[in-house]
Amino acid sequence: MLDANRVMIVDLGDGLGRNIQESIGLDPESCKSASGEAIEDVLGMIERTNPAITFFGVSDAASQMLPLIERVASVFPKMGVVVAAPSDSPELILNLLRAGADEFFTLPCTPDAFKGALQRVCRKKGILRVPSASSMGKTIATFSGKGGCGTTMIAANLACNLSGLSGQPVAVVDFDLQFGDLATMMDVPAAHTLADAVGDDGTLDEDLINEIVVEHPSGVAVIAAPNDPADGESITGEHASTILKKLRGKYGYVIVDTSCAFNGCSLSVLDEADEIILVTDTLVPSIRASERSTRVFEKLDYDQESIRLVVNRFNPKGELSVEDLEKAFKLPIFHILPNDFDTAMAAIDAGVPVAEVAERCELASSLRVLAAKFVEGAEEQAPAAAGGVMGMLTHLFKK
Ligand SMILES: Nc1ncnc2c1ncn2[C@@H]1O[C@H](COP(=O)(O)OP(=O)(O)O)[C@@H](O)[C@H]1O
Ligand SMILES: [Mg+2]
After folding, report:
1. Could you give the C-alpha distances from 359 to 216, 352, 364, 367, 368, in angstroms and in order?
2. Which of 128, 144, 162, 271 is least crowded, fewest Cβ atoms below 10 Å from its Cβ?
3. Which domains occur in the chain, in start order?
4. What was the pLDDT predicted at 383?
């Protein structure tokens, strides 16, 4: 995640700093902004706080920010100078290059564009360990076209395993606003829920987002769905985007469980996700529902690479072979989880991760391997020792 102590954001009081904060998912309270300060004041602030990277919000090619950038770039040659602007006119880019900016991105920017800019500036300036771009608040949504495929089970276990494997702070949020059962599955009290962050007048109080988090014994931060389905109606797609942006500024991974419906809110959640785990089981209605979901994702122009098809409850002795499944789906299979109803039910009944019920069972191992696929360098450490046929399958479908 971005280390807010080593990042500074400067604008001229035109709101661009806030825009940058939102785009890069940095917690607004935790970064230093120098809106409209005189050049000498900004230089003094940079000297005092020693940021590795300073972001400048620039409105246009004639902005008064340009002389400031020029001064800063020459006085602090080791610091990364990144500029964000609402347009990318050639004149602006030329002026920025002349002023000594290292990187540029347009606002609002996609997480990928931002990560790319960050990586390049870190490489160019030899900045180590500042904002670890690859791990900056990755948002992963779990989605299924049909209920009962194991979406919530996967979300809960993914969050717990990611927490252990990545060592980063992890949050899991239940955006199944009507019948969300994540808190029950993780056995945490849902005294506060998403509905508490949105007032009766429909406004979201961003400060309350931290208050509705409940800590799971694994360290994972859990945000529960409303207890009353009616309360979910006040949560809009815009709320969902704001909540997820805020969370990704604070947590290394934000896992979002969803309902199996396409509506304003779930579409916003999916829009915010860097990767979508599309969960299916091997029953024909589930396969059909997954196909339909894939078509919707196509229409929405989602990058096919970001859709991770996970086949749950696979039975190697069942009617459908892996080859059949591959043909049925238009997507490559990202991961296969074995069918183990007794263990899955025991974990759900006890409100604990599967590994706590039977650490060495194939389902627990396979869930760990799934999580490892989202953590750089962890796959080698994760137990491919899932043994037997499933172990081989898991290995085969490793990406
Ligand atoms: N790999 C699995 N093997 C056997 N049963 C499973 C598996 N994954 C999930 N289940 C069972 O499927 C049911 C639905 O799981 P859930 O996560 O609530 O699905 P969804 O959120 O997609 O509706 C639960 O009873 C759970 O025990
Ligand atoms: Mg569910």
Report:
1. 18, 12, 6, 11, 10
2. 128
3. 4-134 (3.40.50.2300), 137-396 (3.40.50.300)
4. 56
Atom 14 of ligand 1, nearest CA residue: 148
Q: Quick: pLDDT tens for 181-216.
A: 999 999 999 999 999 999 777 888 878 898 999 999
Whole-angstrom Cα distance, residue 368 to residue 365?
A: 5
> pLDDT for 277-322, tens place per residue?
999 999 999 999 999 999 999 999 888 889 999 999 999 888 888 8
Verify whether ligand 1 is closer than 6 Å to residue 363 (CB atom): yes
For ligand 1, say whether the CB of 153 is within 6 Å of any of its atoms: yes
- Distance CA(196)–CA(80), nearest Å, equals 40
Contact 67, 98 (CB under 8 A): no
Cα 186 to chain centroid distance, Å, stands at 20
pTM of the predicted model, to two decimals?
Answer: 0.69
Of 208, 205, 214, the closest CA to residue 186 belongs to 214
